[in-house]
Specification:
Blueprint (H helix, E strand, L loop, with lengths): L15 E9 L10 E4 L4 E3 L5 E6 L5 E5 L6 E4 L7 E5 L18 H13 L5 H6 L5 E3 L9 E4 L2 E2 L6 E5 L2 E2 L22 E8 L13 E7 L7 E7 L3 E9 L3 H5 L3 E11 L9 E14 L3 E15 L4 E2 H5 L31 E16 L4 E18 L14 E22 L2 E24 L5 E25 L2 E18 L8 E17 L2 E11 L4 H6 L8 E14 L2 E12 L3 E3 L5 E3 L3 E13 L4 E14 L15 E10 L4 E10 L2 E2 L7 E2 L2 E11 L3 E8 L7 E9 L8 E8 L4 E9 L1
Parallel strand pairs: 1-7, 11-14
Antiparallel strand pairs: 1-4, 2-3, 2-5, 5-6, 8-9, 9-10, 11-12, 13-14, 15-16, 15-43, 16-17, 17-18, 18-19, 19-21, 20-42, 21-22, 22-23, 23-24, 24-25, 25-26, 26-27, 27-28, 28-29, 29-30, 30-33, 31-32, 33-34, 34-35, 35-36, 36-39, 37-38, 39-40, 40-43, 41-42
């Protein structure tokens, strides 16, 4: 037995009230979203501190406790005056125990994420993003750069239309040197992530800027289930060592204290002829303590640094004519006559960069009287970024080349506060939330400059310091009665923009305010079928420099969306979620290679998302996600209104297996259909179908495994984009697709020791 979810709390007249707390048997940490139900049908979910209060009829003497990934328990109740503590142990997932009943308006996505995280191996930050159904990533400038994100008909650049956070701290960088919303997740050690949740569309009051296509939030573990040391190695000089170690004893865990540290060192040359020399070092530590009976304090510190050199994008004709190559001394190849190489060759060998990020988070969660929970969080980030790129070669400057440099330093300060309350009155449940947040960004020497090499500047195009502040407040109310759930809320965001330009006279200060209302409705017909309607307004903010210069770009263009969906369980072990959706943007942001923002048109998207999870046997699971989208420019005529690189048809899926003897793993695929490379579809970005395989043998004290990317050695392009390029000695620039080749067959081994 494993999991029951998607419950409604039935509030009725009862004479007994049972109070208790649910914790993990190994970590001694509280577990949120555990379902505690009585035989009469009444039930509640545990809060962030693992606490619950269950109203029970006088004739009920037992309760059932269940949660995803844990063994369900049935407990006899003999004393309602005594507060009980219940320990749950991990167990196999059984989809037959998943019930569809009315509760949180985003619980279906929470269910999917927990199922996938329990079943699917995760080895990198990119793997964490790929867990989101319908979300694709692409790397095109070396391993250290943030991935390009594709979801719901969006080429979301590096995060412009997807809000990403970790433990409540934003990952997206506003007014970044390389692009608005730049979301570099490489500071995350995947072994420290305990859960994640996501939502598609602009329907969630707790998520503001960049939440147009949706949001993804990751939560680090408060304490490790077990300490580990892991070593990985494979082709292309791939090497990784990671350690995560609990620091406190079980006795201290029982007293509410826990602490652990984790470290990750990675090196990778990649399949390119000009090795990437990608290296990364991550360190992370977290401490938790209980203050009194009703308060929990959590403190985490992390730092990461990375550097790499990039093969970069190359135009299609360069490979066709055999002009791609490099010299072994590392000189800029475009300044010489290059030898003939091929798809994995390099034109300009001085591309690459380095980056670092250090974070501190302090969070206090308090259980107050009358079912109130208060959360207060402070965070700070110090960030540095340097990137050297040349994607057009000699198109603009036929003598020195088109190389440019982007860099910035940044201090980010923030606060998140939230107050929640749950009450039952006259068989109606009210879940109320109010929140406030503040984010202060200060960038130093944000630069875009043309260069001859990585240090010699020809011309500064942008150089200055950015001050950007965001203050917001939101309220949210969820009402549950019988088979109905109504969720309504709104948030108000205020932005302040200032740019101290070091190249031009002082510019004006600008500010703006935007309101974002939401309305969501659910109706649960029975334990097998639920209908829902989501609607709301979101936005993505603009780069502060574009706002200050006021060059035809809106400050905070709004997004209006709606989802009409169904959750269906036609068979005991089959769960289906499908939705028809629509999204309209007041202005699409278009990014040039240099990271500057160009004014785009109004856009609209309509699509269908389909997701299914099926348990074939006790140990074999299948999943499939199919995502269709029709993204269009709303101001251009048909045939001229395609959105470049926007995905129209994607699919992911596979088979996951977990045998009792310790053998586990997954065979998965991802499919991206070809799509328009430009507005009139005269250029095409090719699609691909790639399969991966993971097999592990896991025992109590150790794990050995093999992971294979691109199992069938498919020839594919990870990234493609329209570029106007000019190679050395070409008479004129050429408008053509450039690409970064996808990784060929890539195998690596791992050995992990647990203690």
């Amino acid at each position: 037995m494993s999991v029951s979810l998607l419950f409604i709390a039935v509030c009725g007249l009862a004479q007994n009230k049972l109070m208790g707390k649910i914790i993990d048997i190994n970590t001694k940490e509280p577990i949120e979203y555990v379902v505690v139900s009585a035989a009469s049908g009444s039930c509640v979910l545990t809060d962030k501190l693992g606490n619950f209060e269950l109203a029970m009829p006088t004739d009920s003497t037992s309760i059932i406790i269940s949660s995803i990934g844990y063994v369900a328990q049935k407990i006899m109740v003999t004393d309602f005056k005594k507060r009980i503590i219940i320990e749950l142990k991990h167990g196999p997932v059984d989809l037959s125990e998943v019930l569809i009943t009315s509760h949180s308006n985003n619980i279906s996505f929470h269910t999917t994420s927990n199922l996938d995280l329990n079943l699917r191996p995760v080895n990198s930050a990119q793997d964490l993003l790929k867990l989101v159904p319908g979300l694709f990533t692409a790397q095109h400038m070396g391993g250290g750069k943030a991935e390009q994100i594709f979801i719901r008909g969006f080429d979301a650049d590096h995060g412009t239309d997807v809000n990403i956070s970790v433990d409540g701290m934003p990952v997206n960088m506003v007014s970044h040197a390389h692009g608005q919303g730049y979301a570099d997740m490489h500071f995350i050690i995947p072994e420290t992530i305990s859960q994640y949740d996501f939502g598609k569309g602009p329907y969630y009051t707790g998520y503001g800027d960049f939440t147009t296509a949706g949001y993804v939030n990751y939560t680090t573990a408060d304490v490790l289930d077990k300490s580990l040391v892991k070593i990985e190695g494979g082709q292309f000089n791939d090497a990784r060592i990671v350690a995560a170690i609990n620091l406190l004893s079980n006795k201290q865990k029982l007293n509410g204290q826990s602490a652990y540290i984790a470290g990750d060192a990675t090196y990778f040359d990649g399949p390119f002829d000009f090795a990437e020399h990608f290296s990364r070092l991550n360190l992370f530590g977290k401490y938790n303590t209980r203050i009194g009976n009703n308060n929990k304090l959590s403190v985490s510190l992390s730092t990461f640094s990375t550097d790499w050199r990039a093969s970069g994008e190359i135009p299609e004709r360069a490979v066709a004519s055999g002009t791609v190559g490099f010299d072994t001394s590392g000189n800029r190849l475009t300044l010489n006559a290059p030898p003939i190489i091929g798809r994995f060759g390099t034109i300009d060998s001085l591309q690459g960069g380095y980056s670092s990020r250090s974070n501190a988070i302090i969070k206090l969660t308090s259980s107050l009287r009358n079912n109130f929970i208060a959360e207060n969080e402070l965070y700070y980030t110090n960030y540095n970024f340097h990137l050297h790129v040349n994607s057009t070669f000699f198109a603009e400057d036929s003598i020195n080349g088109d190389a440019f440099r982007q860099r910035e330093g940044r201090d980010l300060f923030g606060y998140n506060g939230k107050l929640t309350n749950r009450i039952c009155l006259n068989e109606v449940t009210y879940n109320s939330t109010a929140g406030i947040s503040a984010r202060i960004d200060r960038t130093h020497n944000s630069e875009f400059s043309n260069t001859i090499d990585q240090n010699t500047v020809i011309q500064y195009n942008q150089l200055g310091d950015i001050s950007e502040d965001n203050l917001n407040a939101y309220v949210d109310e969820t009402i549950e009665k019988g088979k109905w759930l109504l969720n309504a809320g709104s948030r108000l965001d205020y932005f302040y923009f200032k740019y101290d330009d070091k190249l031009h006279p002082q510019l004006p200060v600008r500010n703006n305010v935007i309101a974002s209302p939401k309305l969501n409705i659910q109706y649960t017909l029975n334990s097998k079928l639920q209908l829902y309607l989501k609607s709301g307004k979101g936005f993505h903010s603009n780069d502060a420099r574009a706002v200050i210069f006021n060059d035809g770009l809106k400050t905070m263009p709004a997004a209006y969306g709606a989802d009409l969906g169904v959750i269906w369980k036609p068979l005991p072990r089959l769960l289906i979620n499908t939705a028809l959706w629509y999204l309209y943007l007041e202005q699409e942001f278009v990014y040039s290679d240099d990271g500057t923002v160009e004014p785009g048109d109004k856009t609209r998207r309509v699509g269908i998302d389909f997701s299914a999870r099926y348990q074939l046997t006790n140990w074999l699971f299948a999943d499939a996600n199919i995502n269709l989208a029709n993204p269009r420019d709303a101001e251009l005529p048909n045939g001229q209104n395609h959105l470049a690189l926007a995905p129209t048809f994607t699919s992911t899926g596979g088979l996951d297996f977990k045998l009792k003897n310790g053998i586990n793993g997954a065979l998965s695929y991802r499919y991206l259909h070809k799509r328009a490379g430009n507005a009139d579809y005269s250029l095409t970005a090719d699609g691909y179908f790639v399969s991966d395989l993971t097999i592990n043998y896991t025992q109590k004290r150790y794990e050995i495994g093999v992971a294979i990317e691109n199992l069938f050695n498919t020839k594919w392009n990870e990234f493609e984009a329209e570029e106007v390029t000019r190679l050395k000695n070409e008479p004129a620039p050429v408008d053509q697709m450039s690409f970064t080749p996808g990784t060929p067959f890539f195998a690596k081994l791992k050995l992990a020791v647990f203690f």
